[in-house]
Amino acid sequence: MATFSKPDIRQAIASDADGMSAVLAPILKGWNSARPFDPAHVLAHYVEHPDRVSCVVGIDNAGTVLGFQSLKVASSGNIYDLPEGWGIIGTYVAKAAAGHGVGRLMFDATLKHAKAYGLQDIDATIGADNSGGRAYYGALGFQPYRDLPGAVGARFRV
Fold first, then answer.
1. What CA–CA distance (Å, rounded) separates 32 from 34?
2. Are 89 and 111 in contact (CB under 8 A)?
3. C-alpha torsion sign, points 43, 46, 49, 53
4. Given strand 52-59, what is the order of strands in its sheet?
5. How far, in whole angstroms, is CA 117 from its chain's centroid?
6. How far apart are CA 113 and CA 48, in angstroms?
7. Domain of 144?
8. Which pTM value belongs to this model?
9. Is residue 3 part of a domain?
10. Could you tell me if residue 133 is inside a domain?
11. Would you call 129 helix, strand, or coil by DSSP?
12. How confident is the model at residue 5 (pLDDT cuts 50, 70, 90)?
């Protein structure tokens, strides 16, 4: 197994979209998801989304994106059927970097932004068969609070 040094965690910028797309593509393909993952979509949906509270990336010392975490605020009529003002989180870590603390470090940074924004609740909607995602969010303190078709909603009280 490769040795990982502590990654740099910072807010995503437009030039990160290619690296973020490279992280997202194999994850979505593994889920058999038809969701787009091209750099233009990543830029619009994560980096520059109007509901963005935070979008952090984990970068190794060579400048490679190891993962990213998006936090948006739920607007009225959002696709997740969440109360307006809740946080919506999504976390994506490259397979080679999984289990090396990248996700935890990204959440530490994300949580600071959630508090500064004034969020009180954050929802993670996790695929019911995504045991790794459920374990990750559970280790951060997210608690399951609703069952959805093919997914579980987990809530973090900020």
1. 7
2. no
3. negative
4. 8-11, 52-59, 65-73, 87-93, 121-127, 151-157, 143-148
5. 17
6. 16
7. 8-157
8. 0.92
9. no
10. yes
11. coil
12. confident
- Residue whose structure tokens are 């010392």: 61
Distance of CA 69 to the CA centre of its chain: 3
Domain of residue 25, CATH code: 3.40.630.30
Q: Which of 52, 51, 80 is nearest to 68 (CA)?
A: 52
Residue 17 lies in a domain: yes
Where are any strands of DSSP class E within the chain? 8-11, 52-59, 65-73, 87-93, 121-127, 143-148, 151-157
In DSSP terms, 67 is beta-bridged to 58, 93
Virtual CA dihedral for 64, 37, 56, 81, nearest 10 degrees? -160
Count up the domains in the chain and report the number: 1
State the amino acid at position 43 in one-letter form.
Answer: L
Q: pLDDT by residue (tens digit) across 105-120?
A: 999 999 999 999 999 9
Domain-located, residue 2: no
Backbone angles phi, psi at 89, to 5 degrees: -110, 145
Supply 115's token pair: 């508090």
- pLDDT higher than 60, residue 3: no
What is the signed CA dihedral for 124, 29, 65, 139, rounded to 10 degrees? 30
The answer to whether 20 and 49 are in contact (CB under 8 A) is no
